[in-house]
Amino acid sequence: MISCMGKVLRVDLTAGTTAVEKIPDEVYEAVLSGKGLGAWYLYKNIPAGADPLGPDNILGFCSGALTGTGAFMTGRWTVVCKSPLTGGWGDANCGGIFAPAIKQCGYDAIFISGISDKPVYLFCDNKGAEIRDASEYWGLDAVEAEDRLRKDCSGKKIPRIAVIGQSGENLSRISGICNEGGRIAARSGVGAVMGSKRLKAVVLAGSKPIKCADPEAVKAISRELGRKVNKMFVPKGIGGSLALGGIGMGMAPSLPLDGSLTSLIFREWGTPSNTPMAIMSGDGPLKNWGAGPSEVGGMRMALAYNPDKINKIEEAKYHCYSCPLGCGGRVDLSQVAYSEFYETHKPEYETIQAFGALIVSRDLNAVLYINELLNRAGMDTISAGNTVAWAIECYENGILTKEQTDGLELTWGNYEAVIELVRKMIAREGFGNDLADGVKRAAAKYGGEEYAMHVGGQEPGMHDTRNDPQLGIHMVAEPAPGKHTIGMAIQYGAMSLCDICSWAPPATMHAKAEDLEPTETMAMISKANACYSMLFDGIGGCYYAEMMGVHMYKTIEYINAAAGWNYDGDHYMEIGARIQTIRQMFNVKHGYAPSDVKLPDRMQGKPALRTGPLKGVTLKNKEQVAMHWKAFGWDEKTGEPLPETVEKLGINRLMEM
Ligand code: SF4
Fold first, then answer.
1. Which of 58, 142, 187, 461 has the CB geometry, 3.0–4.6 Å to 178, for a possible disulfide?
2. Could you give the 3-state DSSP secondary structure of residue 249?
3. What percent of the chain has pLDDT over 70?
4. pLDDT, mean over the chain
5. What is the whole-number distance in angstroms between the Cα of residue 634 and the centre of ligand 1?
6. Domain match, 399 and 349 both
7. Domain count, the chain
8. Domain housing 339
9. What gap in Å lies between CA 491 and CA 507, rounded to an integer?
10. Cα 269 off chain centre by
11. What is the per-residue pLDDT across 204-220, written as a single tens digit (0 to 9) for each?
């Protein structure tokens, strides 16, 4: 594939060696790069039963097949490994400028196994790769370590750095890997895998060219997309009205939205735009997934997180590599009296919700401060927020005592106690030590399992499955369960996948009640969502480009132009199905049984909520997941890919390469 480098770097930290491996072209044809390449490599090379924190686990840093070709919004880097949080497939991704830096060193991915006997970092440039001593950086938070390494390693080229903070070093199973001052690839416990290898950072300073089959065609597609994005205009100061939009969306959660609307909202506010809508519509989980809006303050809660408040303290906007949208920003923290930091990244919606309405706090400053604490430590805000919410509910119900919480009054909305608890989780101190490995393990020790929101061991993203049963399917059926980024009804409405894929059903406006029935159409929609999501992960694409829809973001045209191919949407959706099937096979190989993964009762509406837009909703999630598996050609009882499906997708032959 012309747009890929054709090689990966293999590092063995036990032996202290590095080697370059050529990847057959057929592999790129079958799974592209990014998560697809990672799935192929890890399935082949991690032995069944390997300890996720042991030397046999492989940590992969993967760039996308379109990264660096001029295609917009393809600068996401993906980390892959066996997850220490779930024991199954693990991955996380992040924006920034690290993804093209992998390719500029001459590789599509860097795969790291073994365990070093002392802290090290990996340095790569045009000349090759070197394992260097990292003793002086070990113990620093992710931002400090990145700053120091950038200064110490700067030559002709400013290096791009992926690094762990204290949480990864401390093997917290909810830790991630950071770049660009604390932006984090957060999920699956990828940071703990890096910490277990005593690998503090990967520092990249290459400048090799990245090829593209038809750069003019790619430029033309990007020009057109840039024109559309720049034409958009949104009046200032209307963030609060998004809460009213939320009420409307609560009535029709799968309302087909034009992708341009999504892009416009994200360009103006970034993901914080979602918070007021989520609180009022039933999309955002409230009070540890256990309440309707009126029980957490309703509109008062929604307006506490009016995204205009964040825009007012925004110091600068920023873009990931090759992105015309620029949903990121730096915000001022100097006015927050208890903060030792001057600024933080604009918090994502997920973080705001996890430390806002989920714990019944209306304090935006606390969210901003916790955001910076967790970003620097490299801890996943979604997992941490769900775990803290469990602790509060246990405390309120007498399952946890003040002695057990080290004297912290863990009551709803007590953000001061939550800040202290977060500090303890980062330092692995006292009660915080027991929460630093996520909610499943904390509940196994203290009880309160009914309040522990996790799917197959991973804490769920901040979108309520009762509001969107489609999302409920993906939360369970996704090989890295609990993720919110694989598919939603509203996203399907925006994407128009039926216009590129012959078997993808058209999106329709329909009421929530219809979504509750397990139907073949619903299963084909969830299959299409998952396949398109995998395709995007293969090219290094951003989720918000996915949400723009195929008429605005020309995915198929981009791949054909960059790779010099001439395939149609069906072909590319089959690549997505292949990637997803290999990830599912990884779980089966490692004994992480898909049929053991379930939504917690509360997330299924058992019992149903008694107030709000989700009042009375109970899912038929188990039946829906079975139909999703069947649509993929996987066993509908066990979720294991059927031999004929594996054969049809050519996976057996692929694994012999
Ligand atoms: S939309 Fe946001 S996250 Fe996506 S590539 Fe652009 S700046 Fe990065």
1. 142
2. helix
3. 94
4. 94
5. 33
6. yes
7. 3
8. 217-451
9. 10
10. 19
11. 999 999 999 999 999 99
